[in-house]
Design a protein that fits this description.
single chain, 138 residues, alpha/beta, 5-stranded parallel beta sheet, globular
């Protein structure tokens, strides 16, 4: 009698890498933890200049999505997105703001901006994760 042996092939794919930029330390920590728990690799920055250096100087090619606050010191999220998109046009950008912003309205006012999505603060973490998943699949 011959015993049948069944092998299950499991394919493990590397999670998308996300850059999170927010000058609020608590929000940065919570967002990073939630995304890591969801299987993402996270490069977290409180300082937008360091986030820009991470792409520009350190040549980070892993980051597929940037989640950034709009209001930050020195470089705001819009300027950060603009500079990073010049270096990496394929990167997806999700901006967070306490102001209600609709993507369609934004593109009417600033048609040259290349922002993929807006999320209103305070953000429900499950909504943020869902938004990120939408762009991680793209």
């Amino acid at each position: 009698m011959v015993a049948a042996i069944q092998f299950t092939h499991v394919v493990i794919t590397k999670a998308k890498t996300i850059m999170v930029v927010d000058d609020e330390p608590d929000l940065l920590r919570i967002t990073t933890k939630m995304l890591e728990n969801d299987g993402y690799d996270v490069h977290a920055f409180r300082n937008p200049e360091k986030a820009l250096d991470h792409v520009e100087v350190e040549n980070c090619n892993e980051c597929a999505i940037i989640v950034s606050d709009i209001r930050m010191p020195v470089i705001n999220g819009i300027e950060l997105a603009k500079r990073i998109k010049k270096l990496r046009p394929e990167i997806k950008v999700i901006l967070m703001s306490a102001f209600e912003i609709h993507k369609e309205e934004w593109h009417k006012v600033l048609p040259s901006s290349d922002i993929d999505e807006f999320v209103q603060k305070p953000v429900k973490m499950s909504d943020l994760v869902d938004t990120i998943k939408k762009y991680a699949r793209a």
